[in-house]
Design brief:
This protein has helices at 4-9, 22-31, 53-70, 80-84, 106-115, 127-132, 134-140, 156-161, 168-184, 202-208, 218-231, 253-262, and strands spanning 12-16, 37-41, 74-77, 102-104, 121-126, 148-153, 190-193, 213-215, 244-248, 268-272. With 275 residues, it is an alpha/beta fold. The protein is globular. The mean pLDDT is 95.
């Protein structure tokens, strides 16, 4: 077991099927600028949203095995699709098998939604996330009568992964799913962006429906990470800027594109590898 000082100096890990988790990394960097971050993006196997639950769990465990060897103090699962497997019957709980706490992107977002005076809420996410009903299940644990309306996209995360954020196909996909959801529920005022890729193009969602509040769960996940580290005395005491090390099973060029788009100025060290 690491002593407390050594634990404080260990990095935070952020994992995703690709570049989407950089939206969570951005918020973590804002709140915790002195923390070192290891980012794992399994771009080589993306998108996860069209895979089976067993495939997603197996791929996730490969990233967790890598992080166990790297030694980290916490893992933020910045992928809704991975986080939604936490409700799967085959999910045994990563914390039973790995020596670090795991914070999903879904649970903190749901906890925040439940504090708000919303009458109902929409969720636009990958087909897998919507199919699991994870947002519905967690919300209904507390508010059984709160309607949750899901809208699955099979292509949007993949399109964003291509790196051409001005592609007409991205704009059309966003408009299609926003308008499809609102055509069924025209009074809907609050929609969760239930895939961490989507806030990369949040302005497209807002342009498609200016009257709607689009909720970015990355804010809530970053706050949950900060709260956990504070409560367990695990904040890094260094006063210098923390490092950002990116490991990807894809290519590094997409990372420069998305880091720039998100305004992340921290200079990363990028390693291409297989998990």
């Amino acid at each position: 077991m690491e002593n407390m000082e050594n634990m404080q100096n260990l990095p935070i890990a952020v994992i995703d099927s690709g570049v989407g988790g950089l939206t969570s990394a951005k918020e973590i960097i804002k709140l915790l600028p002195h923390e070192n971050i290891i980012y794992c993006g399994d771009n080589g196997n993306a998108p996860y949203g069209n895979r089976s639950g067993d495939e997603i769990i197996a791929l996730t465990k490969k990233m967790f095995d890598f992080l166990q060897n790297q030694k980290v103090k916490l893992v933020a699962v910045a992928c809704n699709t991975i986080s939604s497997t936490f409700l799967s019957k085959t999910y045994e709980g990563y914390e039973k098998h790995y020596p670090f706490p795991v914070i999903s992107v879904i649970k903190p977002a749901v906890e925040d939604v439940l504090k708000q005076p919303y009458q109902d809420v929409g969720v636009i996410a990958t087909a897998f996330t919507i199919k699991t009903g994870c947002y519905d299940a967690l919300i209904h644990e507390t508010k059984l009568d709160m309607p949750v309306y899901g809208e699955p996209s099979e292509n949007l995360a993949h399109l964003i992964e291509q790196g051409d954020l001005d592609a007409p196909a991205i704009k059309e996909d966003v408009k299609h799913h926003v308008h499809n959801l609102l055509s069924k529920h025209p009074n809907l005022k609050d929609i969760i962006l239930g895939c961490t890729h989507y806030p990369i193009v949040q302005s497209l969602f807002e342009n498609a429906a200016p009257q709607v509040q689009f909720i970015n769960p990355a804010h809530d996940q970053a706050a949950a990470v900060a709260d956990y580290l504070k409560q367990h005395n695990l904040l890094n005491p260094q006063t210098s800027e923390g490092a950002l090390n990116i490991y990807t099973s894809g290519t590094y060029t997409i990372y420069h594109t998305i880091l720039s788009e998100l305004g992340i100025t921290k200079a990363p060290h990028i390693t291409v590898m297989k998990f």
